TrEMBL record:
It holds the Pfam family SRP9-21. Its main location: cytoplasm. It comes from the Eukaryota. Residues 5-66 form the SRP9 domain. It comes from Liquidambar formosana (Formosan gum). This is Signal recognition particle 9 kDa protein. Coiled coil: none annotated.
Amino acid sequence: MVYITSWDEFVDRSVQLFRADPESTRYAIKYRHCDGKLVLKVTDNRECLKFKTDQAQDAKKMEKLNNIFFTLMSRGPEADISEVTGKEQTEAQPAKKGRGRKQ
């Protein structure tokens, strides 16, 4: 069991683990309300990766990881996850030009 402290490293290693063996990789979420701790676990029965946090802002990151895994599970392990991670969406969105009324 390996606790990974960096979120980006956890996501990268989790995706690599899934792509290496998609049939036996599992993803589990455990939340303890009394402690306020969230533990994410990805395992393939040989390697186990865990990420523990008590920060509320990490819930949004967990949602993005869920979307990554849903994409990989539905489209296959070789699917492009760049559209899910949002790295290229910021460049594609047009800039808004004001808050006033349309003329």
